[in-house]
Amino acid sequence: MNYPQNGSKIYLFSIVLVAVLGGLLFGYDTAVISGAEKGLQAFFLGAKDFVYTDSLHGITSSSALLGCIIGSAISGFCASYFGRKRSLALAGVFFFLSALGSYAPEFLFFEKGVPTASLLIAFNFYRIIGGIGVGLASAICPMYIAEVAPSNMRGTLVSWNQFAIIFGQLVVYFVNFLILGEHTQPVIEKIGETLYQVSADSDLWTIQTGWRYMFGSEAIVAGIFTILVCLVPESPRYLAIVGKDDKALDVLSHINGYEKAKAILTSIKETVEVKSEKLFSFGVMVIFVGVMLSVFQQAVGINAVLYYAPRIFESMNMGDPMVQTIIMGVVNISFTLVAVFSVEKLGRKPLLIWGSIGMAIGAFGVALANVVEVAPIVPVISIMVYSASFMFSWGPICWVLISEIFPNTIRSQAVAIAVAFQWIFNFIVSSTFVPMYNMQGMGMGDKFGHMFVYALYGIICILAAWFVASLVPETKGKSLEDMTKLWRNRK
Length: 491
Hints:
The protein is mostly helical.
């Protein structure tokens, strides 16, 4: 086999670009609910055979996260036995089927446009399928990028995956806005402790059709991703693990050049000689650190803000909530670029610590705005600070660390466990946000819930900063093979 003597950045960037499309779909699928959830709620409030409560809506809005837990939990098995590439293609198929099924959950079995308990189950089934795709992509996209990237570019390239996630969210904010057009979101009126009804003057198109187009729009991107991922090479580290050294060397040579590729392959082979190493071969701490990175990334509450952004901005009574959601998306993507261009210069730990502090300031700002009378711009800016701080820290850097912190021989299993915990806590945070946000007490009405939930997130942000400073190792400039030595020395 004739191996390229010189590496090609164009080759590297092209395969990374395809991989980050999986991140874009991840962001698109998880944020599409932000524009669709009110129309969806109004649709199922019209059901005659069951009562669509606040809690049911919270579960329905978050049901994709159950699939994310499943997808991330099986990602280690898929990545190990099918390879990174085939697993990403499988994720693309799940995205595609979910988009079509969520658009028309009545397909074959139910009368279109008639909300029933059975239809609600069918809709959640399709959302869970999409969640499985998200779970697979969330674990395997950064893993794949980390395994093809040179060590001096790994943090930056993995951070582009987070950029794609946020870009996917921004794209779907725009798509939802354009789909809504001149139509308006339905007006939901509270008629009991956890009961609601749709106002008679609500826009029927939004209730019957609008939310369908929002979910269905994902099918286009999912189809493109599935086709393109079939054209990229398999991860060279996976190829080395399964004994396909010639193919691994070929991929590495295209990226790094032949001479450097030989040295990298030798280093990889030294760390994968024992393929059957157990999960805790490097001690409990490496798994604990990986899991807690995932837990804190979600426990700080960011996805509750992203999923329910229009509803949150609407409660602040300051302009069009859909426009403010788009503005937040632009801010988010701008601050994600801060991480992309600084992660290899500043390192992982400083960005996480400063981001945690910034999030705490933003969260406490929103909490305070619900205790004392302030201008509506104060909580809006606080939300923006909170979100922006996440985007240059826990958003991208958590994925960078999870993709690189584990030794080669346990990476697929360890990443699967860490990402599964991420989605478990994502589901916990997202499904509890609406009930907590709507809590009443202390004579404050709904403001008590608003204050409580953000104060809680602020406290967790402070704990996250302490955790990073105390237990997380700095991985800047280290090769993936260096992780084996680092954790063996810590045992």
